[in-house]
Amino acid sequence: MEIQRVLAKRQRQVLEVFLRDPLGSFTDRDLVKLTGLPINCVTARRYELAGKGLIVRAKIVFDAETKRHVQAWRLAGGALSM
Prior knowledge:
Blueprint: H1 9-20, E1 25-26, H2 28-35, H3 39-51, E2 55-63, E3 68-75
Antiparallel strand pairs: 1-3, 2-3
Helix pairs in contact: 1-3, 2-3
């Protein structure tokens, strides 16, 4: 994926989670667990990736740990061809 060359290191770390499971959807908490990055880094990088059109909102899911409904994200349809 050529777009990865222009992404910053932490943006690539977050995007790689989506690329490893292109049909999956992930909450910010999932991304924290899968990348090992702190939540403030994950939310900022996720926001940037969404702004670039690489990921999109997938669905609302219930987070059993926080007892709240949260947004899950997925890889954008055209992101694999970029």
